[in-house]
């Protein structure tokens, strides 16, 4: 879910007072809901984007000297000096924010607003459990390659024209100087919108049909701009900024129209992989089941007395051993083969003091084998199908099949 967008009330409004709010759908573009409510009655959302109205901001164009961006404190001091003569208030009383991707040695836009007012709003929201993840301006200057934006807002009795272009942001009444400003712009390439309350008046004065955009929709568009006013002492921590950037990228990849083909391609690739893996697993399961069935069939055909197959290899070994005993043949688990396999591998001069054989297990006492000798003996007997281990003074030898 996208963060709740709150419109900052102009001073001297209380941080716990009423806010206009808007909330986008999961695509982050379409308006889902909007309204106006006290801070305590706003829709549930732990994260909010704070929008700063145009009346609370001033815009200034400066050129930063080389090396001024080496640290935040140095940059703030440079801005204080550059803007001091252009401000009505003391620089210390104002909050500054640079345009996105600002560079030293080139002209950059700087937004300024009341510092105490903005900090009080942010602190009030965070005290109420609503973390401010971003601060955006209502209007901002256009980049060099962007068309002029003309937006008519306000009430029907007093429409207001706001122009955003490469020369900054200007707001004037839609009459006299405002109309003269509009006439001086390339209206054929400009993007012009109007709010519902002033649409009729704007169309009459500008002599053209205008797209109607509600104020909450316009604020959502402003929230998608690259501008970030949370700088200097209001800057979001690096981790939160990285998380916000990641969420923005995910949102773009998930819903942006230009990524639609890529999204469908990824879905098709995942479905292909899923179908392929399931087909391969089904084939492997069938092959394994066929082998198991072949072993069971061999066991039941060779030994018809076996009716229930639980562990085919073990049952077959037992049946073969029983058959050998029945015909008097010698099996690998009998005493003679065990003695014959063990004797060549015993260390020279080691003779057991006692030998005991029972149920396929040979026990020899008194050999006194060292750990290294026992290891070599086990390694030699393993390939012949016997396991060898020591228990105190006893050496135990057992056929693997019998074990």
UniProtKB/TrEMBL annotation:
GO biological process, one term: protein secretion by the type II secretion system
InterPro entries assigned: ATPase_NBD, GspL_cyto_dom, T2SS_protein-GspL
Domain of life: Bacteria
Residue ranges of every copy of the GspL cytoplasmic actin-ATPase-like domain listed in the record: 35-140
SUPFAM superfamilies, A to Z: Actin-like ATPase domain
GO CC annotations on file: Gram-negative-bacterium-type cell wall; type II protein secretion system complex
Name used for this protein in its record: GspL cytoplasmic actin-ATPase-like region
Naturally occurring in which organism (per UniProt): Variovorax paradoxus
Lineage start: Bacteria, Pseudomonadati, Pseudomonadota, Betaproteobacteria, Burkholderiales
